[in-house]
Amino acid sequence: MAYSEKVMEHFANPRNVGKMDDADGIGEVGNARCGDIMKMYIKVDKGIITDVKFNTFGCASAIATSSIATEMIKGKPIEEALQLTNKAVVEALDGLPPAKIHCSVLAEEAVKAAVADYYNKNGIAYDDKEFKCDGCCHSCELENEHK
Amino acid sequence: MNRIYVDNAATTAMCGEAVSAMLPYFSSAYGNPSSLHSFGQEAASAISAARSAIANYLGAQAKEIYFTSGGSEADNWAIFSTAAIGAKKGKKHIISTKFEHHAVLHTLEKLEKEGFEVTYLDVYSDGIVRLDDLRGAIRSDTVLVTIMYANNEIGTIQPIAEIGKLCREKGVLFHTDAVQAVGHVPINVNEEFIDMLSLSAHKFHGPKGTGVLYCRTGVQLQSFINGGAQEKGKRAGTENVASIAGMSAALEKSCNEMNANAVKVTALRDKLIDELLKIPHSRLNGDRKSRLPGNVSFCFEGIEGESLLLSLDLKGICASSGSACTSGSLDPSHVLLAIGLPHEIAHGSLRLSLCEYNTMEEIDYILKTLPEIVERLREMSPVWERIVNGGAF
Questions:
Q1: For B385, which residue in chain A has the nearest alpha carbon?
Q2: To probe the interface with A, which of B299, B300, B304, B385 has the most A CB atoms within 10 Å?
Q3: Is the Cβ–Cβ distance between B213 and B68 less than 8 Å?
Q4: Spatial contact of B339 and B349, defined as CB atoms under 8 Å apart
Q5: What angle do CA B27, B32, B35 make, to 5 degrees?
Q6: Contact B200/B211 with Cβ under 8 angstroms?
Q7: C-alpha of B118 from chain center
Q8: Best CA proximity match to B123, nearest among B87, B147, B144
Q9: pLDDT in tens, B44-69
Q10: Where are the beta strands (DSSP E) in chain A?
Q11: Which of B285, B317, B320, B337 is most deeply packed, by most CB within 10 A?
């Protein structure tokens, strides 16, 4: 198993690391038992994600996928951020080892969880189906698929 | 960047003596040991000398040494052979532990599918088997007890002589996977009542891909590879002459310098342990006293082992982790779970395994670098945030 240079670069120098005291939305996915937790904070102004921060407990690819996901949604309208797929995250990192694909899923879900939290706090109606994350990662199922 | 190698439980650098001992068998003395001409006899005498030397360092006889491709093969051979012989007598029960190497565990799992029953002894939070548990587990149909000499991840040394004595009294064969112990701690197969023992050359500065199964005279051993007459017809295939010579030279050096190495390496280990324990929410895995001289196994709460490992690598420190992410599975190491660590904590494991080539300067560099990395990873960890705020995982 080897990581791409891009993964190692984001792991060594993650972007947008940190917490946000005045976040408009906070999403947390994964669980410590499985070895990954991602927590994403977003600041929203007029429907635009103006700032993003993340905290992640996990392996190098979990940190790298969080980092690149924050870059991919920062400055974007919320609707666009919701289009972020785990596949796009993987491609942006020049690929991930098969056993690490679930990290990209977590990154997608973390973004969606943060947006859902923002919607909930602001009484904005949304379609649940667009937010497949229910606060718990699907890493276990995905791991099994790889086996 | 200078690199620091602290993964000696994975493999070691070869010593100069082993390299020198191997070289002639690649170039001038390249004969097949089975050939009757002088080239062949040159090679045959190298193997014979190695067999005697290795036997001597184990307190065994030359005829009890079988060369293999390494520790895994020796484990497979000892267990499958004993099981097959036991099955003929209707004995289909084996006793082992929860934290054996996969070479043993996966072999046992295969036997379970074939109708064997295996009792996996608990190793408690200190990573040490209890004799009373073993005594209680031995049955009239127990054919084999296989318990590792020292654990590969947490370095705990088992009470092998007591285990061997108990097995001998009960008339049960005793095999030990001594891959991590040979060349590092004194071993005598007679004094410790060991019937079968596996070892691997590359764990004591010998070459990779070569090892030994010791099998006591009188213990039946089935053929493992069919073909030529090598290894008394039980393990066919032209011998790996160069590697066998290298293994012998490495074992000779390791055993002759064992005491001095142990003193040096233990001092390095204890410095690391003492200092790393000062990091809050860190713990040493496994008993501190009954421990290989070179093993330092830690868990750092709130961080994940693979990111710790790769961060260390970026700083030139090459170590190992038992986290799930490094194993490619969802579960952290079975060894850490066997000593009762919750998944959440076992994910944050780090193994530093030292040898006599390491220096105190290297330890100082690790002690300067590692706490900074732990702090950096914790700063970005939502799990750590919860721990700091007094919450659970």
A1: A55
A2: B304
A3: yes
A4: no
A5: 130
A6: yes
A7: 21
A8: B147
A9: 999 999 999 999 999 999 999 999 99
A10: 25-31, 36-45, 48-57
A11: B285
